[in-house]
Structures are given as C-alpha cells and as structure tokens.
Amino acid sequence: MKIINISSIALAVLAGGFFACKPDNAGKSGGSELAGDAAQKVYVAPGKHDEFYNIVSGGFNGQLSVVGLPSGRVLRIIPVFSQFAENGWGYSEETKPMLNTSHGFVPWDDSHHVALSTTNGEHDGKWAFINGNNTPRIARVSLSTFRTDEIIEIPNSGGNHSSPFITANSEYAVAGTRFSVPPDANADVSINSFKQNFKGYISFISIDKTTGRMGIKFQLKTPGVSFDLARAGKGKSDGWFFFSCYNTEQANSLLEVNASQKDKDFILAVNWKKAEQYLAQGKGKKEAAKFAHNVYDEKTHSATSTIINEVMTLDPKECPDMLYFMPCPKSPHGCDVDPTGSYIVGSGKLAAVIPVFSFDKIQQAIAAKTFDGSFDGIPVLKYEAVLHGEVKKPGLGPLHTEFDGQGNAITSFFVSSELVKWNLQSLEVLDRVPTYYSVGHLSIPGGPTSKPHGKYVIAYNKITKDRYLPTGPELTQSAQLYDISGEKMKLLLDFPTIGEPHYAEAIPASLVEKNSRKIFKLEENNHPYVAKGEKEAKVVRKGNEVHVYMTSIRSHFTPDNIEGVKMGDDVYFHVTNLEQDWDVPHGFAVRGANNAEILIMPGETCTLKWKPSRVGVTPIYCTDFCSALHQEMQGYVRVSPAGSKIPLSWGTGKNPTAEAEQKVAKR
Ligand code: K7E
Ligand code: CUA
C-alpha cells in the first residue's frame, strides 16, 4: 500500500510537469511573433522550386516524406519499413525481400531519426539514413532515386532509438540500443537478472564511400542502460561519439518512476578510433547473432535478403581508454555537438539547466584522470571538470538542440512549448518563441553538420489541438517554420506533416536536384523476367505458375488478352515499362488481387503476383493517368476451371483464342 502511494505521488509530480504543454499566449492565432512579411517569405510562385528539401521521418508510419521549404509542400512519400500500396513497395515480388528480417517478413516499423550523409562534416547529398525502432533496422535511401536501397537489421538490440547518427565522413552510422537486452545468443534469462545479464549494445555500421553499402563492423558491449540519442564528434572531436543514456538506475520495471531517481544520468563518450585500433589488434570476438541484410539492385530491379549469423563484438572490459561516462542532469534526451566539435550539449528532460560540455576539458580530464568513480568498470569523468557551463533557466523539458552556424544554439522545449536561442560561448539566452504545441525535435538546415546553412528553424510539434481544421479524434501533427536570419526568431508558416515527424533534416536543393534520376535505362535492365520490347512479350507456364512477360507503353499492354489460366495457378505479371521518358510511369492492377497495384517507372520491371479466386474473365488496367488514352489502357485475363483444356494464348490487337485454336487444329 505504502509503495503504491509513493509511486503515485512521484507519478503525479512527473506527469504534471511533463504534460503541461500550452505556452502562455496559446490560443492566439500565432502570436505577435508572426512576421509581417511571412506570406512573402514562404510564397513559392507556381512553377518555381523550393530552396530546400526537407527529409522528414514519418514516425509510426515507417516512412519518409519529402517536403519543399519554405513552402511546406509535400513532394513525395518514400516507403522504407512499411508496405505502401500506392506503389507496391513491400507487395511487389521484387521489393518483398527488403522487409525480411530474422523474425521473418516485417512490413511495418516506427521511424524516428533521419541522417543525411556528409563528407568532411558537410552535406554531400548522396543518401538519407533512417532507423526502424521496433524491429531494429537501419535503412539507406538514395537521394538520386528517392527510393530505399538497403536495409540492415541490428542484432543484440531492442528499440533502435539512438540511431542512425553518422560520422563526419560517413564512415559509420551508429545504432545504440534503447532497451538493454541479454545477448541474442543467450537470451533466456530472468528479467530480474538485468544488472548481470543485460547489455547496452552500440553498433557501428560501416558505409562504403562509393556504393553506400552497409555492414556491421563491430558492436560495443556496454553496461545495461538505455541509449537515447547520439551525435558524432566533428572537427577537433572527430573520432569520438557521444550517446545520451537514461535508466542508469538499471531498472527493469516502472521506469517512469524507477528510472527517474538519480539526479544525473550519463552521456557516454566513445573513442571510436580507439575501438578501431582494438579491432585491428584482434581484440574483437565473434558472437552468434542472426540478422538480415537486404539490398535492392538497380540493374535487376530486385532485392535480395541475406541472413548473417555472427557479429563482431568488443568488450570494454578488455579495451581500456575507449569509453568514458560524463554525468548529465537528468534523464538526458538530446545529445548534440556544435559545428566546430568543441561543445557537447545535453538536454535533460527533467533538468532545469542545459549542460554544455567542453571537448577540450574532456580530454584534459581524461589525461589527468579526474574521475568521479566508475560505473560498471567504466570511468566517470567529474561533472565540473568537463563542463563548459550551464544555460540557466532556459525553459522546461529541453529535448533537442541544433546550431545556426553563427555561434548560437536553438533548443526545443517540450513542456514549455518553445524554441530558445542561446549563445554557445556566453550561454546567455538570446531569444525565445512559442511553438504550437509541445515541440519535439527541431531542425536547422545543415544544423547537425560542420556548416549549417541556417536561415530557418523548423519545429516538429507533437500536439496541434486548435491549429487546424479538426479531423475527428486524430489530428494532424505539424511543423512550424521560423525565420532565424535576424536577431529575433520569427514564425513564418505552419504545415501539417505525414505521420509523426520525430527528426528531419533539410538540405539545399542545389545539392540534390542535379542528381535526381529521370529514368532507368532499358538496355541496362537485367531483370530475369524483363521484356525489352513487345516482341519479347510472352506467357510461359511452369507447372501451376504462369509467368506473364508483359510490356507497357502509351497506351497499351502487350499482351492485353490472355487465356489458358486455370484455377489453382499462381500468375506472375512481370511488367516492363518500355518508356524512356521522364515522368511516365505506368501502373498495373488486376481485379481481386489481394495485395496492391504496382507502379512501374520508365525502364523498370516490376512483378505482381495474383492467385485467381474464381472462374471467369478478369479485367486488368493501368492505374496511372499516362496519356489521353490512359483510360483505354486495359485488357482481360480468362480464368478457366482447373483441368480445363483451354490452351495458353495471348496477344494484343488480335484474337488470341482464335489463333491458339488454329494452332491446335493444325497439329
Ligand atoms: Cu521523437 Cu528523437 Cu524518438 Cu526526441 S525522439 S522528440
Ligand atoms: Cu499507362 Cu495509364
């Protein structure tokens, strides 16, 4: 009884503090902060392009969206971890392997963080990386095709939240496990044995410079805590990585209370160059693990999934001087590194200050062994010794910080619903603006890089209440765009988002648009079922499989009449789009297909599997309005009873049955 009382008081205190969200001047149509020339600043005239691509996580929809800034116009949804019936992602035979995991086919995930590739700490416009939290995965998306090219599963991990964050030269993307877990190879242990058996694994995923190909280079077996967010060092701190950790209490139940006990949790500083040295010295151990690695090949237009059965691990106990804990008040969420790499900003969700750590001081403290004891064998650096200073009374519930490249930082405050700008040197608060409401992440174009592009900050809000037309119990989540070019931040625009945007990055259009892919070359199409011209179109029976090598071009399919399919057959429509013009996809759908349509890009081959459910003639059609005669782009498939003698026949512009019957008669 007593215990319950204490818990509920603690809960009430925490919940009360944590869920208040409206700023003082809430309810006004946007506050006095709305810039007078806001409309002009976000207006992108018809036919004109936006200045930035905003690559936005879809949260629980497992996708990415691409938004133009400053207009807020949605340009594309890129399916990543979730099936997408709009274009057949995860439904087409070619893309199904992309969603394979060690748990089998997993067609959904929860995505939080986007990371754009960098070279020398600056955006290079090549790839976007994004995490799947639930079934731990990292995906790589091409910024040339705007498609998911690769997905790698992370073993020894649960709730892949501290992920993916990348090093300055995109050598690695890291993934820190949110849930500490027992090693996959020996996981049947008592939950109560958390402190002995559970580990907080951090994975270093290598990225090939030219192809982008990922691989798990090694995992660090760190103490059982919860990793929340991370950033790589850059400039002077290149070679280091910083991870915020909570639940240093190592609780395994009622974390809301039990993981909020300590005054300070930690930021883990990882010397990853040192880890590489230990690896080269042979300190790594291969451990059994099981994870999928899925790669999409642009030439075969098909994905393959490979299951890998071991992973290289490094035990910090055998690798001294590689890891250090820094105390950080209290339950830190964001952990951000400024453009010069000199400062590491921790954001304690339950803290009243923002601690700013100095990389130089961290190095000095390590050299002088200014420790404050150790945690599970890892030295804890003395808080005061590594602190650059604290931002006092910044707001309530700091979550994330980005940088404007002018020596300032902007931090989001979930509880007090505001963005607060402060100076990195003086730690003085310079400006604050309300957000509507409960801002989570924020993004400055180039904010996490060595060279922020500045100009705007975008707040990604969790709650919108009265800001939009109501749509029933579920309201849109939203982004708010602020001008940060002047001394004061000025609200310019609200725009709704797709799913829950946790993090997003923005990149100048000039770095991306020139590389945008227009078509896939037909002569380079190595799909095993390609038909490179109408003459190659055919229908082939292999037992009860019927393979249709179909072509599409404005405005017909070849073949568009097919007979001889029987009940019990599995019909594979392999559709090649013969077009070699930009922006001319064709779609394909067949009545009764219980999966999706497919949308085939110029030069590509895509396969829809269909199992007929009844005898009769079934229409097929193109689903994408491709020409004035799109509505004529249709055909029929005749399905006869199992055991029927109707021969397999096909054609376009002729009567396939009559021809087939003639052939049969001649024999
Ligand atoms: Cu939304 Cu980055 Cu998952 Cu903070 S996290 S808000
Ligand atoms: Cu092809 Cu419509």
Characterize the structure shown.
This protein has 667 residues and is mainly β. It has 2 domains: 52-515, Methylamine Dehydrogenase, Chain H (7 Propeller); 522-666, Immunoglobulin-like (Sandwich), CATH 2.60.40. The strands form 10 sheets. Strands 6-7-8-9-17-18-13-12-11-10 form a 10-stranded mixed sheet. Strands 41-40-43-44-38-45 form a 6-stranded mixed sheet, covered by helices on one side. Strands 35, 36, 37, 39 and 42 form a 5-stranded mixed sheet that branches. Strand 2 and strand 3 form a beta hairpin. The longest helix is centred in the N-terminal third of the chain and has 18 residues, at 2-19.
Provide a short characterization of the protein structure.
Residues 648-667 are annotated as: Disordered. The chain has 667 residues and is mostly beta strands. The protein has 2 domains: 52-515, Methylamine Dehydrogenase, Chain H (7 Propeller); 522-666, Immunoglobulin-like, CATH 2.60.40.420.
| Overall morphology | globular
Domain module tally: 2
Distance between the termini: 90 Å
Structural class estimated from helices and strands: mainly beta
Signal peptide: 1-20
GO molecular function, one term: nitrous-oxide reductase activity
InterPro entries: Copper_CuA (IPR001505), Cupredoxin (IPR008972), N2O_reductase_N (IPR011045), Nitrous_oxide_Rdtase_Sec-dep (IPR026468), Nos_propeller (IPR041114), NosZ/Cyto_c_oxidase_sub2 (IPR051403), WD40/YVTN_repeat-like_dom_sf (IPR015943)
Region (Disordered): 648-667
